[in-house]
Prior knowledge:
Layout: H1 11-29, H2 33-38, H3 40-68, H4 73-100
Helix pairs in contact: 1-3, 1-4, 3-4
Amino acid sequence: MPGAIGSIGGFGIAFIISYTMCGEIMAKDVSSPQTTELNAGTRAPTLMKYVHIGQIETAAVIALAAYWDKAYRKPILLGGIAGIAVNEALYLYAKNQGMTNPGPPTEQHNSTYESGY
């Protein structure tokens, strides 16, 4: 039966879910690559810290899903690894582009802390 548990039919669905989940978690933990590139001058010092926090969170969720769902462990892990790798490359590229080809930033930061937003 196509799509039945344990058949190859569920491999693609599990891969897509795992891959998409990685992007969702990364988007939650860091700003968009475009904003990163435009504001690399002020964001670069902390950017990869938050990318890596998102990757740790992603890896933990992927590991739990793979542990709980043995039938789809392989695509869950493959999708998670692919999602983490793509996001790492995406943010490294955005950071590099912003640092080497800075354009007009979309954010301004004060050098002193002011309460409020």
